[in-house]
Amino acid sequence: MNLLSAQPSGPAGTRGEIFADSGSPALDCRILNMSAAGATLAVPDGGAVPETITLAIAGEFVMRRCRVVDRRRGRITVAFEMPV
Length: 84
Prior knowledge:
This protein is globular. The chain has one domain (3-83): Thrombin, subunit H, CATH 2.40.10. The chain has strands spanning 15-20, 27-34, 38-42, 52-57, 64-72, 75-83. The chain has a six-stranded antiparallel barrel. The protein contains no helices and six strands. The N and C termini lie far apart (24 Å). By secondary structure, the protein is an all-beta fold. A hairpin with a 2-residue loop joins β5 and β6 (75-83). Mean pLDDT is 84; it is low at 1-8. This is Pilus assembly protein PilZ.
């Protein structure tokens, strides 16, 4: 499944914050690519990101509930589930 094959609709290079359900501190990230279905995020340690997260994107008022669908060195790809 290629979530990012749809036409880009997002702010590549924009800062974001990842929030885990466990109440741990937010993890800074950078949006590398984004579509209506999901995004690829640059993160310091992709292995430390849980399977389900909430993503806040700088300049947007909606937080997005996400599911991690791919992990690679220094980045993760997430599918948007619904606004929080």
